[in-house]
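Reopening this one. Same input as before:
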Amino acid sequence: MIRIDHNHSFFLENVLFTFALASEAADIFTAYNHLICGIGKVSATYELMKAIRQERPQLIVNLGSAGSSQFQKGDVVCCTKFIQRDMDVRALGFELYETPLSGIPTLLEYGLHMEALPAAICGTGDNFEMAHAVQHYNIVDMEAYALALVASKENIPFLCLKYISDGADDGAAEDWTVQVHNAANAFAKVLNLPDKNNIQLETTPAKVNIPS
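Same output, byte for byte:
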């Protein structure tokens, strides 16, 4: 059982955990329904849509690493706000980060918040950012916006937790390589998952409260 707050609890059998890389999942999440969606927005969108069509989950949980100049390495944060940070069509009169003619807000607000965790705004783009200086978002990754958008369009509850692996600065690549392997252990602790050697998934249908 995953308990997010007093209104939202989900049986593990009905949860889909999503990761960009197998190294972020390690072997801790292999006993659960999990998806390795690949790096970048396009791959993440395609793989999640395919997974939803095969077996629709009652909760999508995105777990992964992220860079931040505001949070400390090793922190786990919860994202409920997302920006597509590499969308820039200002030359045609649109706002920065606005997807033209889509009707999608520049700041996508979707997802459940675990009250015990710091809240973060995730800037997603198809580049590994190493000079983060903007104030519109305070962590950076390469998939979360796309996953949140799919979940919102499919009306599936979404939880996004990020493990801060680097400072999104000139040392980010080296820091990420070292820190990414610690992410799975941190997520298991935050989610209060049972010991991987003593796992018994629930089979009773989940009772889900979806915000109206």
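So the earlier flakiness isn't reproducible anymore. For the record, The helical segments are 22-25, 41-54, 144-154, 172-179, 183-191.
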